[in-house]
Amino acid sequence: MKKDQIRKGRLAGERSRQVLRYLSSMEADRWIGEADILVDMAHLVMLHHQKLMTPEYTRALLRVLLQLHEDGLPDQVFDEQFEDIHAGLEAYLMERAGEDAGGRIHMGRSRNDEVSTCLRIRLREDLLRSMDSLVRLREVLFTLAEAHRDAVMPGYTHLQPAQPTTLPHHLLAYEQALGRDFDRFRAAFHHVNLSPLGAAAFASTGYPVDREMTARLLGFDQVLSNSMDAVASRDFVLETLSAGAILMTVLSRLAEDLILWSTPAFGFVSLDDAFCSSSSIMPQKKNPDTLEILRAKAGTAQGALAGALAIVKGLPMSYNRDLQEVTPHLWRGISAVMESTDLLTRILQGATFDEKRMAQEAARGFSTATDLADMLVRSHNLPFRTAHTIVGRAVRRGSLDLRVLEAAAQEVAGISLVQRGVTADEVAVALDVPTAIASRKAAGGPAPDAIIRSIRERRRIHRQDSAWVVSQEKAIQEALSQLLADARELVA
Ligand code: ARG
Question: Which fold has domain 17-107?
Fold first, then answer.
């Protein structure tokens, strides 16, 4: 196969294997090989339409490209003697369609607009896949919330027992957060799905290219107009990685909750063995390794963002080769997102929650002390701070019996609860966990009625999000099918 065609005019001599490897983006370019075929096709169809390419050359080149699309790219185009897939593919076209035809495909464009177009085509696909996974993960959270609608559990602040809540309340907290992650991905998608093609090296081109046409053929929402910005910017990568890093942070917290809950000390959840490992020395061990790796992948995603930001910072206009080094960070970050979202969905689907254990723990640690203080305020007109101090002192004494509460009231406030009409029954009711939860029925609370309303409201948003993903996938599919149909027609 032809050697790198690009340097032979201007530069003399050969570069060492070491330099070639160092410069080549081939490894990361495996992500954009398929996209590069589509970009070549759209460019050719446009050149033909603009009468910049004869029907014969168009046919010869499209025939090879359609074949590649069918069979996949051969290994030779990924040879690291080439700087990148664009050079590899051009050399392949020259070999297969002849130098006269192959040598014409690159008119009116540069690898600078080409690579950004390829990145955007692949990335929008990965973004939609990530959003689809997010939709599925949220669906599992709804399903679990519905299956355990009344399951009482302890709620924590500072990881200390705070107030009782319910499992659906906890799960819906994550669903709501993931809904915002979905929004951030959708916002990133709008900045990704723009076409830089036709910007050429940065300065636009004297050929009468039709940028609207290539954008439409490739399923982009719009042309990314200014030709310098089109090749120089990678904020679409930074935005994606930022949304990804934030999402991964949320997932890592859910993973951490599950890790804690699966310890014998908590005993709230049992994970499917399929996601656990054992120990090489301790035969009894069941370790939640998949969740631990997931928790760590959040760090990988953050590192990808930090790496990409550091590379782009301070670069002069317009294209600089440094940008090539951003790309592996992109694939590392988005892979972490796609794999982790999907796995967490499966882990949750395979998890078994122990409602009895959670209920046992829910009452521990004076978890309804706040409700008792609230009762003293509501039914006996104490200032909240006084009630709070009395109950706190009784907890210090180790009991919330009326006898201990009465002593505490005398001690800290010089008042008698009994004289104010507080009864032991009232205290018992205030401390009852299900009663406490049922009372918290304001919007977004854990009371069963509030949960039902939350699920209804959140499911409505979830349906819209899901429909949006399907409509975007459909629009892109339709555009690309049309592109292939146009190409086949020109070849026929
Ligand atoms: N491999 C390059 C990248 O990923 C493609 C663009 C190369 N452009 C250039 N002028 N060397 O950014």
Answer: Fumarase C; Chain B, domain 1 (1.10.275)
